[in-house]
Structure formats: structure tokens, C-alpha cells
Write a structure and sequence with these properties.
CATH architecture: Orthogonal Bundle
CATH class: Mainly Alpha
CATH superfamily: Jann2411-like domain
Largest sheet: 2 strands, antiparallel
Strand order of the largest sheet: 1-2
Helix content: 40-55%
CATH topology: Jann2411-like fold
Structural class: mainly alpha
Order of helices and strands: HEEHHHEEHEEH
Number of domains: 1
Shape: globular
């Protein structure tokens, strides 16, 4: 295990927020992030399904905040991909300050005490942003910083956290990996 399960959940959430709530390219096609009335359902879908007490639909204000945070988090992944650790740290620190992130021991009935991360208030958007920012801080500030990446497939800029044993992941999804392998195969066949 590279990260503890709570940090892993928060890093997965950061990936989901960035990939669902920021403009760019996805699997070879332009991707326009949801806006207006489409944003609250998209933000709600991006929250991990294991989250407790998830409302049926996040309020627009929370969805807007998560979209803003996702744009900042995207900068962290891009900076790490380009080995600009100082820029990544600056963006993470910005999110930590904006949310008032703080650790706290929490206990689920029947489970042991565990460190969780909270924000300055209990709103969904502040809480999730504070947690994601703290998890990104733990990644950027450790030997695991190189595990944050941006898909290397052509025309895809979705992000990922490499949880593989050997640190070999290069793509956001199996679909992008297959797309690149198929293109390489076609190129070899055409050239030989």
C-alpha cells in the first residue's frame, strides 16, 4: 500500500473532481466541463460513492466551489507532470489556506480512531477540498510525488494517481492505453 486508505480515497476524489469538472481533452476528444444546471449533478457524481451522507444533489454553491478547486488541483497534477514541484506546492498551499484544512481524529462506530481532514466549516465543498488538498500535500511532500500524472495519450489531459507497484502508469484509463497501443500497432503494420 502506497498511501493509507483515507488518503487514497481523497486522491481518487481529487482525480474525479479534476477529470469531471475541468475543461480539456478526454480520450481523443475535446471535453467541456459542465456549467450552469449541469454542474451540480456532475459534481455530485464526482464525489466518491463511499462518502457518507451524500445529498441527492449538491447545491450550486458547493458545485461551483468544487469546480474552482478542481481547476487549482489540475494545476498541481500538471506541475508535477512537468517536474515543477515548487508550483505544485504553491497551488496545494493555496487550497490548504482557502479551506482552513486541519487534521482531526474521527471514529466510525465499530472502527478504530483514524485521522481525517476537515475544512473550516462542514460544507461538502470545503470539506472535500480540504481533504483533497491535504492528500495532495502528503503526496507532493513525499517520495510519492511522482505518482501524480497527466495522461500521456494524444488528445487527453485527464489526470491520475499511479497506485501501481512499479510506478509504471502513464494513462488515465484503460481506454487511453488501448488507444495508444492500437495506434502503435497500426503504425508498425503500415511501416513494415
Amino acid at each position: 500500500m502506497l498511501f493509507d486508505s483515507h488518503v487514497e480515497l481523497l486522491l481518487d476524489a481529487a482525480v474525479a473532481f479534476v477529470n469531471e469538472l475541468t475543461d480539456g481533452e478526454r480520450r481523443g476528444k475535446p471535453f467541456v466541463a459542465p456549467k450552469g444546471g449541469e454542474l451540480p449533478p456532475a459534481a455530485t457524481r464526482a464525489v466518491p460513492s463511499t462518502a457518507r451522507k451524500l445529498p441527492d444533489l449538491l447545491p450550486g454553491e458547493d458545485a461551483e466551489h468544487l469546480a474552482h478547486a478542481a481547476r487549482v488541483m489540475r494545476g498541481v497534477f500538471e506541475a508535477m507532470e512537468e517536474q515543477r514541484v515548487d508550483d505544485a506546492a504553491e497551488a496545494v498551499n493555496r487550497l490548504l489556506r482557502e479551506t482552513g484544512a486541519r487534521p482531526q481524529l474521527d471514529r466510525v462506530p465499530g472502527e478504530p480512531w483514524a485521522v481525517h481532514f476537515h475544512g473550516s466549516d462542514d460544507s461538502y465543498s470545503i470539506g472535500w477540498t480540504a481533504g483533497c488538498a491535504t492528500a495532495l500535500a502528503l503526496a507532493v511532500g513525499s517520495e510519492l510525488a511522482g505518482r501524480l500524472g497527466v495522461c500521456r495519450a494524444p488528445h487527453c489531459d485527464r489526470v491520475y494517481v499511479d497506485m501501481s507497484k512499479n510506478s509504471v502508469r502513464q494513462f488515465c484509463s484503460g481506454a487511453c492505453q488501448s488507444r495508444v497501443k492500437a495506434a502503435a500497432f497500426r503504425a508498425r503494420r503500415a511501416g513494415g
